């Protein structure tokens, strides 16, 4: 079924928004997000590997031809370094490793080179925004004291290591290794990593800590850097398990109703709120269970299972059986969104991502059942004539659609669903690591003169 869903999402994108970034499935036209500046084709690049894995050969071929002829990075506009890295660089790298088509490698390295000026700061911590024509960078105006954001500069590592691997140019890997150095030198409040770091002074901004937005994928990439290095990157491993220890001590709590959740930390005070984005952490804990310090393996799997259950509850407690953007554990509510501006669902993948990891690592059938509930809800409430749309209020009786088919719906949500219902030998974890946009990258074995090793 996720194959039919992919076909519906792709065919409508092709019909109404081909070559543009995203589709507006209700108005049946293109949607341009300012995250990508004037770079076009986000949905195409994000969907390449999903098309390939689902064996949609015709569609993959058309997408590849579009990339060859039309994917252009010489644009005079500001882009989000993070978004362009995880969607475009990640998407191109994955497409190359899966298909072996040279055009994807060439474009990935070309885009990687265009992103390098973002690192021209006193500390080497990159800017959030970069004009890829002028090479001028800056940070989000709303970010604490001109800071860069942990999840943004901490989510470049996997892709940049592969860029060095594929180009033979060490500069990409050096840039991201330097980020690690800066972080290791700094004092961490209570062993936690604040979400804001000033790229000029090298000092933390506000002491806000989150495993949801602004923090999330930094932690994911520490673990995955170690896994992707064939477990040789001891530094990444240590940083990950130390961080999890601090997260357990300071952020993980149990509600009176027995639900384990991950709160946000604001200068020592907890906010008992968990974002949909934070739900990826269930899968992360389970994926990291195997390498956990002595005898903690079962505990990390258990933690993953608990987070999965809480996130399933956040879905189950809505009218539409789709989870809200954020849900709270205070004032007598549990796993429910209490603010209007947190009740939306934008086709996000994190809960299904966690189901997929939990299924692969435990084979408990409830994860497939929960995934199936999500499929039914998506079909019932998000599927429209022109594709799939997000929803403004998941507690409502009738759908108010937001009219955007996010590129990550094709890249992540549908891919994780497909993998949840596939055999374990499709993109096996010992050979592949998924970037935070669900783009699979091969584990780099030490003898990697022979790339064929990784081609399974």
Tell me what the structure shows.
The chain is mostly helical. The chain has a single domain, classed as Glycosyltransferase, CATH 1.50.10. Helix content is 45%, strand content 11%. It has 15 helices and 18 strands. The strands form 8 sheets. It has a 3-stranded antiparallel β-sheet with strand order 3-4-5. The chain has a 3-stranded antiparallel β-sheet with strand order 8-11-12, with no helix packed on it. Strand 11 (264-266) and strand 12 (269-271) form a beta hairpin. Helix 11 packs antiparallel against helix 12 (297-316) and helix 13 (350-362) packs antiparallel against helix 14 (366-382). The longest helix has 20 residues, at 297-316. The protein is globular and about 55 Å long. The relative contact order is 0.12.
Shape label: globular
CATH architectural type: Alpha/alpha barrel
Reading side by side through the largest sheet, how are the strands ordered?
Answer: 3-4-5
The share of residues in extended strands comes to 5-15%
- What's the total helix number? 15
Task: Outline the low-pLDDT stretches.
Answer: 450-456
Structural class: mainly alpha
The level of helicity is 40-55%
Report the major sheet. Answer: 3 strands, antiparallel
Mean pLDDT: 97
Summed up, what is this model?
The chain has 456 residues and is mainly α.
């Amino acid at each position: 079924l996720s194959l039919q869903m992919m076909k519906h999402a792709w065919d409508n994108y092709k019909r109404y928004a081909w070559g543009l970034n995203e589709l507006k499935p209700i108005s049946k036209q293109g949607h341009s997000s300012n995250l990508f500046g004037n770079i076009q084709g986000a949905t195409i690049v994000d969907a390449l590997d999903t098309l390939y894995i689902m064996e949609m050969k015709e569609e993959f071929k058309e997408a590849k031809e579009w990339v060859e002829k039309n994917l252009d990075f010489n644009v005079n506009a500001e882009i989000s370094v993070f978004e362009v890295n995880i969607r475009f660089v990640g998407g191109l790298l994955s497409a190359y490793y899966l298909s072996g088509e040279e055009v994807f490698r060439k474009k990935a390295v070309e885009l990687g080179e265009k992103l390098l000026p973002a690192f021209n700061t006193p500390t080497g911590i990159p800017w959030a925004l970069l004009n890829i024509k002028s090479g001028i960078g800056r940070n989000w105006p709303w970010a604490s004291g001109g800071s860069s954001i942990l999840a943004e500069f901490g989510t470049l590592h996997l892709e940049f290591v592969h860029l060095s691997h594929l180009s033979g140019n060490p500069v990409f890997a050096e840039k991201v290794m330097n980020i690690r150095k800066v972080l290791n030198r700094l004092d961490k409040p209570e062993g936690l990593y604040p979400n804001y770091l000033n790229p000029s002074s090298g000092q933390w901004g506000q002491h806000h800590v989150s495993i949801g937005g602004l923090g999330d994928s930094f932690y994911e990439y520490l673990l995955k850097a170690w896994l992707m290095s064939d477990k040789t990157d001891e530094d990444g491993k240590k940083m990950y398990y130390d961080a999890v220890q601090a997260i357990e001590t300071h952020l993980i709590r149990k509600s009176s109703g027995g639900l384990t959740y991950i709160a946000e930390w604001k200068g020592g005070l907890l906010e008992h709120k968990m974002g949909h984005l934070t739900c990826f952490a269930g899968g992360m804990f389970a994926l990291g269970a195997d390498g956990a310090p002595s005898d903690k393996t079962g505990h990390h799997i258990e933690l993953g299972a608990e987070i999965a259950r809480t996130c399933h509850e956040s879905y189950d407690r809505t009218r539409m059986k789709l989870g809200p953007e954020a849900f709270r554990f205070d004032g007598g509510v549990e796993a429910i969104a209490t603010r209007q501006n947190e009740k939306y669902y934008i086709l996000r993948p994190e809960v299904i991502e966690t189901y997929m990891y939990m299924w692969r690592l435990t084979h408990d059938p409830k994860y497939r059942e929960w995934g199936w509930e999500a499929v039914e809800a998506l079909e019932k409430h998000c599927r429209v004539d022109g594709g799939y749309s997000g929803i403004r209020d998941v507690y409502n009786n009738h759908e108010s659609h937001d009219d955007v088919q996010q590129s990550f719906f094709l890249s992540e949500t549908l891919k994780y669903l497909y993998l949840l219902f596939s055999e374990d030998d499709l993109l096996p974890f010992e050979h592949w690591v998924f970037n935070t946009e669900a783009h699979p990258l091969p584990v780099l074995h030490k003898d990697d003169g022979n790339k064929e090793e990784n081609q399974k």
